Amino acid sequence: MEILIRNKVIEAIKTLYGQDVDENQVQVQTTRKEFTGDKTVVVFPFLRFSKKSAEQTAEEIGNILVNTIEVLSEFNIVKGFLNLVIDKGYWINQFNTAAAEEKYGFKAPDEQSELVMIEYSSPNTNKPLHLGHIRNNLLGYSVSEIMKANGNKVVKTNIVNDRGIHICKSMLAWKRLGNGETPESSGKKGDHLVGEYYVKFDQLYKKEIADLIAGGLSEEAAKEQAPIINEAREMLRLWEANDAATRDLWQRMNRWVYTGFDETYKTLGVNFDKIYYESDTYTVGRDEVLRGVKEGIFEQMDDSSVWANLENDGLDRKILLRSDGTSVYMTQDIGTAKIRYSDFPIDHMIYVVGNEQIYHFQVLSLLLDKLGYKWGKDLYHFSYGMVELPQGRMKSREGTVVDADDLVAGMVDVARKVSEELGKLDNYTNEEKERIYRMVALGALKYFILKVDPKKTMLFNPEESIDFNGNTGPFIQYTYARIQSVLRKAADAGIEISTHTPEIELNDKESALIKILVTFPEVVKEAGQNHSPALVANFVYELVKEFNQFYHDFTIMNEPDVEIRKFRLLLAKTIGQTIKNGFLLLGIEVPERM
RNA sequence: GGCCCAAUAGCUCAAUUGGAUAGAGCAACAGCCUUCUAAGCUGUAGGUUUCUGGUUCGAUCCCAGAUUGGGUCACCA
Q1: What are A155's strand-pairing partners?
Q2: Tell me: the pLDDT tens digits for A415-464?
Q3: Among all strands, which nt has the closest C1' to A559 (CA)?
Q4: DSSP string, A480-526
Q5: Host H or E run for residue A327
Q6: Suppose A292 and one of A217, A298, A451, A573 were both cysteines; which one would form an S-S bond, judging by CB atoms 3.0 to 4.6 Å apart?
Q7: Which 3 state secondary structure label does DSSP give A270?
Q8: Cβ of A481 near strand B (distance < 7 A)
Q9: Which residue is nearest to nucleotide B19 (CA to C1')?
C-alpha cells in the first residue's frame, strides 16, 4: 500500500510540476493517532518543485491520489502533512487475509532460499551459564526463528569452547582439592561443580601472587611466575600433546559440564542443529595459521610464536600461536569457520557474540580474508550489548554473577506465588500447574530481555524481581489466555466462528486493532533486516494493549448482532494466533489458561 | 592515552531510521469487578531528549566539540 501511494505521488508530481522525484524523497508513513487518516504523505520536500504553499501542494497531490487510487476516498491536510483515509473495505480485506492464514506474516523457505548459519551460545566449559549467556541464547534463538520466518534456511550452531587454559584451571584445582568429588557424589549440577573449582583455582592463584609480592616480586612478575599458573600452562601443553591422563580428566569433567548445560538449554528452550567443539576445530585452525606462515601472510618469531601484523589495515598485531605452540581463541575461530563452510553452503554467517568482541571479529574477518577465503569479509558479527547489574558489570571473581539456573528457578517461584494467590488454576493437576508456572516465568524473563534493543546495554536488578504486570511477557500471555477462554466459551455454546468477514461497519477499536494486526508481515520483515526481536516484542505489546481496551469496552459473546459477534470472534481468534506467532519468534510459549 | 559505543520522565525501556503536541510500563495518587479471566481497564502527575554550536522548511535522530558512563587495545576467552 505504501509503495503504491509512493509511486502515485511520484506520478502526481510529474504531471503537476513536471519534475522527477527520487523514490526515497517520498515519505509515506502511518498517520499518527491524534489525526484522522491512515497514511500520511509529507509534502515539505516537494515545495521546491511546486513553488506553492504546503497546503496548496498537499491539496493538489491529494486530489490526484484520490482519483487514481481506488481504495482512497478522502484526505485532509494539516500543515504540510497530507493525511489519506483508506476505505473500510480495504481493511476488511486485509483482515480476511490475515485471518485465513495460520502463519500470517511468515514466509516459507523454498529451493532458492539462502542458507543462514547462526552461531550463538558458545560457552566455555569451565563454569556455568549466567545472565549474560541468557541474553546471548535468547537473542540467538529468536533471531534464528525470525530469519526462518523471513524465508531463510537456518542452521543454528554452537561452538563449544571445550579446550584451553581456562579448562585446565578447573581441572588443576579439582585435582588438588577435589578428593574425587563428582556430580553424583555431591549432588551438584555438573557445570556448577566444575565452576566451583574454577573459582578455587583463582583463589589459590591469588594467594600465590600475594606471597610472591610479599617476597619482593612486582605484581606483574608474580602473576607470571606463580607456580600454579605455570602448572596450568603445562597442563594445556600436555593436553595438546595428547597426554592420556590429562585427556581422561578433561573428558570426564567436560561430560559433567555438558550434562549441566543440556539441562539449562532445555529449560531455556533453546537448541542447535549442529554443534562444533573447539577441541576438534583448533587443529584445523592451527594448520591454517601454519599455512599462513609458509605463504608469508603471518610471521613467526624467534621464540616460535606466530603473529598477524594488521597494522596496515589500521589494527594491531595479533597473536595466533603461543611460543609453546598452543592455540588461542583466534586460532580456533579460523578453523571453525573453515570447517563450517565446507560442511554447509553458507550464504550468510551470523555470529551472536557480545559487543566486547567487536575488535576480535574485525580481526577474524580480516584474517580469513588474508587466508584467501572470499567469505571472510562477509561474516556478520551480531554484536549485542551487555547485561549490567546496578553495581555495574557482572564479575565472576567478585561473586556478582547472576547464575542462569538460579535465576530461572527464582522466577518460577515468583510465578507460582502469584498464580496461587490468584487461584485461577485450582482445578488443574500439579503437573499442569507447574508447566504453566514455568511458562509464565520464562515468558517474563525472555520478554524482559528481548524487548530491549539488542544493541543496547541493558540493566537487570536482581533485587527487584521481574514484573508480571504492564509491558511484560505474562501480561501478553494473559491476554492470549483470555482470548482462548472466550473461544472455548463460543465452542461450548456451539457458536461457529466465521472464516470470512463481509463489509460491515467497524467501531474505532476494531479498526484500530485491524490496522495494527496487518502490519505484522512488515514487522517480521524489519525484524529480520535489523536482526531485532525487540521489534516483534514491541509489536505484540501494541497489539495486546489495544486488544485489552477493546475487550474492556466491548463484549464479544453477548453482542446481539450475529454478524458482528461472528466478526469479533474471528478478530479475537486471529489476534490470539498472531500473539502466538509473534511469541514463537521470541521463543516464548503461550498458555491456554493462566 | 588511542580507537569504539552509549546518554530520553524518579526507575526500566519506546519513538515508523530527518517529520506533527517525544510515548509505554513500573513506582505515586484517584477511580472501575452481579457482566466473555482485575496478571486487566480509565484518569492525574511526571521532560530544556546531558551540554554548546552547526546543517535545514523541520533535529531525540545527521555533523563538530565538551561532559559523564561503558567497552576494547593480553602468549585470557
Answers
A1: A117
A2: 999 999 999 998 899 999 999 999 999 999 999 999 999 999 999 998 88
A3: B36
A4: HHHHHHHHHHHHHTTPPPPSS--S----HHHHHHHHHHTTHHHHHHH
A5: none
A6: A298
A7: coil
A8: yes
A9: A42
Domains and CATH numbers, chain A: 2-86 (3.30.1360.70), 404-586 (1.10.730.10)
Residues A172, A227: contact at Cβ < 8 Å? no
Chain B bases near protein Cβ (<7 Å)? 4-7, 11-21, 24-27, 35-42, 57-58, 69-77
Note the residue count of chain A.
594
CA dihedral A349, A352, A353, A357 (to 10 degrees): 40
- Nine-digit cell at A183? 556430580
Contacts of A261 (CB under 8 A, 6+ apart): A123, A125, A129, A191
DSSP class of residue A446?
H
**Amino acid present at A112:** Q
- A465 CB neighbours strand B below 7 A: no
Å between A363 CA and B31 C1'?
Answer: 60
What is the distance in angstroms measured between the alpha-carbon CA of A549 and the sugar C1' of B33? Answer: 16
Strand B reaches within 7 A of the A443 CB: no
Q: Angle of helix A533-553 relative to helix A430-450, nearest 10 degrees?
A: 120
Residue A42 DSSP label: E
Q: Which residues are A76's β-sheet partners?
A: A83
Within 7 Å: CB of A346 and strand B?
A: no
Q: Where are the beta strands (DSSP E) in A87-230?
A: 115-119, 153-160
Contact status, residue A521 vs residue A535, Cβ threshold 8 Å:
no
- ipTM > 0.90 for the complex: yes
Sheet containing A387-389: which strands, arranged edge to edge? A392-393, A387-389, A458-459
pLDDT reading at A304 higher than 90: yes
Measured N-to-C along each axis, helices A533-553 and A520-529 cross at an angle, to the nearest 10 degrees, of 160
Q: How confident is the model at residue A497 (pLDDT cuts 50, 70, 90)?
A: confident
- By C1' distance from the Cα of A480, the closest nucleotide is B37
- Within 7 Å: CB of A383 and strand B? no
CA distances from A462 to A58, A131, A384, A400, A479 (A): 53, 11, 21, 10, 27
First-to-final CA distance of chain A? 39
Neighbour-count burial of A301, counting CB atoms closer than 10 A to its CB (0-12 exposed, 13-18 middle, 19+ buried): exposed
As given in the structure block, the three cell numbers for residue A411 are: 522466577
The C-alpha cell that represents A540 in the structure block:
505484540
A363 CA from B3 C1′ (Å): 14
